[in-house]
Fold Toll-like receptor 2.
Amino acid sequence: MFVLCKALIWIFPVQIFFVLMNNLNLICTTELKGLCLSGNGLASIQPSAFDSLWNLVDLDLSDNQLTAVNQRWFSGLGALQRLNLLNNPYSCLGSPVFQDLLRLRRLDFGGPALEEIRKRDLHGVNQLEELSVHGNNLARYESGAFADIWPLGEVTLKLHGPFLANPALAAAVLADVTYPETHVTLEDLHLIQNRSIQPFTKAATRRIRQLTFRNLSLTDEAIVNFLVAMNGVPLTYMSFEDITLTGEGRWEPAGWTEHESIDELSARNVEILDVFKFLSLMDMTFLLKYPRKGSFINCGVFVMPCRTSQLLLSLQYLDLSDNLLTDLTLTESLCDGGRTLQDLRVLNVSGNALKSLSLVSQLVSKHSKLTHLDISRNGYSSMPARCPWPAALRHLNISRAKLTAATSCLPATLQVLDLSYNHLRSFSLLLPALRELDLSGNKLLHLPPGGLLPQLETLTLQSNALIMFHLSELRSFRRLENFQAANNKFVCSCDFVAFLQSGLAGGGAMRLTDDKDAYVCDSPLDLQGQPVARVHLSLASCHQVVVVSVSCGLVLFSGTLLSVALWRLHALWYLKMTWAWIRAKRGSRRRNRLRGVPGSEALVSFDAFVSYSEQDASWVENLLVPDLQHAARPLTLCLHKRDFLPGRWVMDNIMSAMECSRRTIFVLSESFVRSEWCRYELDFSHFWLLDCGAGGDDAILVLLEPLSKDDIPKRFCKLRKLMSSTTYLEWPQDDGRRPKFWRSLRDALQADENQ
């Protein structure tokens, strides 16, 4: 079976159908750009399998079981630019298989089974930019097979067998690809014997300008022989990667050679066997005094002696990263107070065992031309308050250390500063020239003050402890163009989500240049883990103040309307009187039970209860009472001044008076209506008439002066109705008519007795 390697597939819209029997039959109905069939054990492919893939750009058939390469596979792939046929068991390419691939720019072929390369095999391939050939077991090579491929930007060759067993074959291959503009990489070599150096002695190889050795085993003697063979060759770049070196480091035999054209010398992942037997590099003055760039990465360097540093006369770029340097050995390497490495502009000592930031700043301060300094991945735990630095320093990297605070130790001349992955909780330093600042991986809660960084263009704050930031904070950075703040613990409030979504969409005042899906909500709980770009908040949750204000306004408005309605309908008065009535009624029942009166009935003690105003008391006391109580047939009247028990609740007195009276006489006048006491008494009397089933005959209205029903408060609807429907007595101003008034009043009071 086979799989598609996702990393190498570009599909615009994709619809693919596969039919796999004994071989591969691929029918594609869309524009497929990249297809990876690597490592699927394919033994054969139908000739027309790729015919429909006319837009294919990248095809990977490596690590399968293809014993032959068929030109028919590629006849319809006119757009193909990258083809990988590595590690299949074919011994040769056969007929011109690539003649239809006019746009091919990168070709990888060969493997353990490749034995022969003929000139016609690569017919039609003449504009490659990259060529990789694995021919460790190559036995036959027709000279000129690669000669027509020009220009070649980069060539990678694995020729382990030919270098050891057939140097002439290796030399022929090198001769066809060693153009001045071509970077040649040789892999899997063992340069132990002098015989393995012979391919470099041929005249054609003297065109090499850029040479890299990768996965190489060699001795110091082989290096000497190589330098002798390359004497006078204008080699500008030489690199060694994944090297195992043996010997004692004796370079004297090559001391006479000339390599002044070397501009860059690089070594990476070098292991020196018996390192304690290895001498210093002092005898390599003939080589070290020329390069302007030197890289010695992960080479186990624990010290570069001062005398060796003095040999690097032209060095401007020095990379000693991932070694074993300490504060003490770095002091030895950067010796003589800046008189060594005087032209140094870039220094990288990251990934060593340095502890003192103060010492490092003092050591580099004398290198007046130093502009770039990388001292990251060391063990600094603190930053002093003041530090000397070169005046030309523009780029400083102190990332992945253990710093807890940033101080004024940092030079004001910096344009690029990287303090990522420390333990900083804040950053508030004035750096007027700074253009790029990386504070990722710290513990910052807030953005740095923009006013202190007037020239800042790029700010990176990924993986901190930010919960949110505001537009005003970003606007304080007057020149900020690129901002990255993913992987923080964002509180997704409405304003922040709207602001950040506009930035993620590129429509805001800032431009977020990192992955928008990495901006994730940490709170509130219902949004935790959701990308901010896909969060949708409701109107109510986003405008709570407005919603609450409107709701409160509606409640207040409704409450006001209800209050007005209740006031107009006298609901509060009814509630108050209901409560008073219930309370008074309960007291009345208790008194009746104490008196032995059954049920809720009360003893009738008065013929009438008289309700009147204090201003009308003289009329009641001087005229009404004498006439009714001192008549031939006297009537008993209940007056509040005389018959109400002192100390009792007024409602109880009124209740008792009304219960013990057959009638209620209301002495109505303007003073009665205006009197608060009378109104209170009238309230309760009205409630008695309205809610206790008392009829209109129980109330007798006496008007001392002309008074219409409109003068009675509207809440006394029962009394107003009585005035409209019941005959009431008016006190006559004419003395002659008064006897009739008294007779009518007595008749009304004695009506029940007569019946």
Summary: The two ends are 119 Å apart (CA to CA). Residues 1-25 have pLDDT under 50 and may be disordered. Residues 254 and 261 are 16 Å apart (CA to CA).
